[in-house]
Amino acid sequence: MSYIADYTNIYDIRGHEITITAPARFDDQSHEIIADKRLDDQAAQMALEKFRKRYKVVSPAEIKNFRASWHLSQRKLAHVLGWSPSTVALYEAGAVPTKANNRLLKILMKDKQMMKEFIADSEKDEM
Question: Are 96 and 54 spatial neighbours (Cβ–Cβ below 8 Å)?
């Protein structure tokens, strides 16, 4: 048998320690933590969200919404930014962007004219 109780854990995300207290599963007899994929994934997600907020990192939803607002596929956005399509897919699935890529995304999300220039430049590359 097991039980669920709050557990504080430290996650290392991009060299930054993020402390999270979240529900975890414990063994009834030894009172040691035991694996529970759902709870463990939930805690890891909480750590990522705390990291994103603390360091102002764009979220997967923000990237998806940005891409959709420009009517771009993942592949097309990757081409516009000079990234691989798998990079865009990973970021939209929850991977944390590099510092440089995060900076670029934030700039382009705020500056529509700059994004138009990036798109125009990428279209020239196609010719």
Answer: no
Summarize pLDDT for 72-106 with one digit per residue, the tens. Answer: 999 999 999 999 999 999 999 999 999 999 999 99
Neighbours of 115 (CB within 10 A): 19
CA 47/CA 54 separation, integer angstroms: 10
Read off the amino acid at residue 36: D
Provide the residue range defining the domain that includes 12: 2-54
Based on the fold, state whether residues 71 and 46 are members of the same structural domain: no
pTM of the model: 0.84
As for how many domains the chain has, the answer is 2
The alpha helices in the chain, defined as continuous H runs, are 37-54, 60-69, 74-81, 85-93, 99-110, 112-126
Q: With the C-alpha atoms ordered 50, 54, 57, 61, is the resulting torsion angle positive or negative?
A: positive
Q: Do 81 and 117 belong to one domain?
A: yes
Same domain, 47 and 65: no
